[in-house]
Design a protein that fits this description.
By secondary structure, the protein is mainly β. The protein contains 1 helix and 21 strands. The strands form 4 sheets. Strands 2, 3, 10, 11, 14, 15, 16, 18, 19 and 20 form a 10-stranded antiparallel sheet that branches. Strands 4, 5, 6, 7, 8, 9 and 17 form a 7-stranded antiparallel sheet that branches. Strands 1-21 form a two-stranded antiparallel sheet. A hairpin with a 4-residue loop joins strand 18 (277-281) and strand 19 (286-290). The radius of gyration is 20 Å and the shape is globular. The chain starts with a strand and ends in a 6-residue tail after the last strand. The model is unreliable at 1-11, 23-38 and 317-330 (pLDDT under 50).
Length: 330
């Protein structure tokens, strides 16, 4: 089913992945333990979650807030930081962006460990919107239930959906009356077994920024963080899909941005961060952190943390209409 999004300029759609390679079921002394149940466990109901949410997927705990900060978010039951099998692997993560706007250079970031947090919740001009919160979908949610109904507000902020009846609107209604979802009915943009979605933009006042000589450009980010409850390798991966949309801050904003650069950013803490070392996998276009000695937190069984670009820019359109094939393998 095709969905139209009317944007001033769609810059890029890309997907990065946080990958933890470890010895599942081992404790930090390397002693084999019973294999864990591969699952997604949450102490919260799906649907609207307010300022933040903690993903608890298989062996990974990853808190997220509505302003683009990943890991460096203090939320129960495990507190802040990305954790793998009970040990820490990530202090904070997000991204950096820079470019040129009508001859004026700019830069912004969601990078809390570097004290750069230029993004606020909501769409451009809508940071006070009460619907600009974190939305959660789970594969175990009741079809057409509360999380599917809450997604109406997410769609109002630009979230994707599967348009089963092809009418261009999101109407999560059980038209067939069988209590189950059918392909001719609408559903939310659930990817994997859990999807966490929010939208934010570079609206922090310039005077409050660490780089207070740069400009606000009107960049919106629709972020989807998703994971799979799987016993395979995919169960140790958290995917992050970014949709960057340049909206401008006023009618006089330039129609295009030039020389735009994006970089996934992370501050890993792999157990005891004092012995962390880094490397690059050129063939995978990935960077990774590992230990080559026994770690104070993980012992001899130390996982490797990797960030990989699974999908680079999908579209660049200097126009007013972007069409995707959401629901058919997009």
């Amino acid at each position: 089913m095709k969905i139209k999004h009317n944007y001033k300029i769609l810059l890029l759609i890309l997907t990065v992945a946080f990958i933890a390679f470890g010895f599942l079921g081992d404790d930090k002394n390397g002693i084999k333990q019973p294999k864990p149940l591969y699952k997604i466990t949450s102490t919260q109901e799906s649907g609207k979650q307010g300022d933040a949410y903690g993903m608890n997927v298989n062996n990974i705990w990853l808190p997220i807030n509505r302003k683009g900060i990943i890991a460096d978010v203090n939320i129960g039951p495990n507190g802040s930081g990305g954790q793998f099998a009970g040990g820490t692997f990530l202090f904070s993560s997000g991204f950096f962006m820079s470019g040129n706007s009508a001859g004026t250079p700019w830069a912004n970031a969601a990078a809390s460990a570097s004290l750069v947090e230029d993004y606020v919740q909501g769409v451009v001009g809508g940071e006070n919107d009460p619907n600009a919160v974190v939305y959660v979908l789970n594969s175990q949610d009741e079809p057409f239930g509360s999380s599917w109904q809450d997604w109406i507000d997410a769609v109002g902020l630009g979230a994707d959906f599967y348009d089963g009846d092809n009418d261009g609107n999101y109407n999560p209604v059980d038209k067939n009356g069988n209590g189950a979802w059918d392909p001719d009915e609408d559903r939310p943009d659930l990817i994997g077994d859990e999807t966490v979605w929010c939208v934010f933009h570079d609206g922090l006042p310039v005077a409050q920024r660490r780089w207070n000589t740069t400009i606000e450009i009107g960049m919106e980010v629709r972020q989807s963080v998703f994971a799979f409850a799987s016993a395979g390798a995919i169960g140790n991966i958290i995917f992050v899909r970014y949709r960057f949309t340049y909206q401008g801050t006023s009618p006089s904003s330039p129609d295009e941005l030039t020389d735009v650069y994006f970089g996934a950013w992370a501050d890993p803490d792999l157990g005891d961060f004092n012995d962390d070392v880094i490397g690059v996998d050129v063939l995978r276009n990935a960077g990774y952190t590992y230990n080559n000695t026994i770690d104070a937190q993980y012992g001899a069984q130390v996982p490797c943390f990797m960030i990989d670009f699974f999908s680079g820019p999908r579209e660049y359109i200097a126009g007013d209409t972007y069409v995707d094939n959401n629901g058919n393998g997009e």
